[in-house]
Amino acid sequence: MDPDIEAACHELLLRLAGRMPDQLLWRYRDWLGEGAMTTLARTLPRTLLKHNIDLDQPEYRLLVAGLVPHGADWHQVSSTLGVDEVTENRYTFSGGAPDWVNSVDSVSALVHATLRGRPDVGEVRQSWRHGDGSPKRVLLITATAGLPRLTGELQRVLRVLGDEEPSVEVMPQRFDLPAYHRAALASSELICTGAVDTGHRLAAA
Fold it and tell me: Which domain of life is it from (predicted)?
């Protein structure tokens, strides 16, 4: 796959976190990780319209760059561009796990075992999202390569462990963080670090 197209799609899906329903977003990220671009191109613009998710100009350009080359319907794509600013983050976050999470957190333990010291991975953090039902775990990871595939891999791990709609945010090192990710990182806890020296902390430990 063209790396520029892949990067455009991945960044767009990052920016849709907190705006697109979790049960849809994880599936689109899974398809991207598997290289199912035709399926993504056919369905994502239609889903944005169905759920009234407007894109700003940078997001619209990402949609065009990522999906039009794979056959996205141009009329649907052009209809996603909104006239207003993207809605600010509607969630709050906390670093501490809710009471129902075991003192021995199997998810954190497995993520630590999987990503500690791993090439192309920087910081690995987690936060708990509040505001829409039960608290939800959000993984926040920096990586330098293979972002869609790492996202898909970790999503599958979380689903095996019982999270049917996993929230895995794998971010490039140089990324203008949306409000959703800034809030999540501000209240996050460090799980581990990979082999990449990020040069600075994403958030206060």
Answer: Bacteria
Q: Is 95 a residue whose pLDDT tops 90?
A: no
- Report yes or no: 130 and 91 within 8 Å, Cβ to Cβ: yes
Which residue range is the domain that position 11 belongs to?
Answer: 3-78
Element (H, E) at 172: strand 167-172
DSSP letter for each residue of 183-203: HHHHT-EEEEE-SS--SS-SS
Provide the pLDDT for residue 87: 66
Q: Where are the alpha helices (DSSP H) in the chain?
A: 3-15, 22-34, 37-50, 57-67, 74-78, 106-115, 147-160, 179-186
Residue 205 has pLDDT above 50, yes or no: no
Q: How far apart are CA 197 and CA 155, in angstroms?
A: 24
Place of tokens 């319209």: 49
List b or e across 119-151, with b for residues whose CB sees 16 or more CB atoms inside 10 angstroms: eebbbbbbbbbeeeeebbbbbbbbbeebbbbbb
CATH code (residue 173): 3.30.300
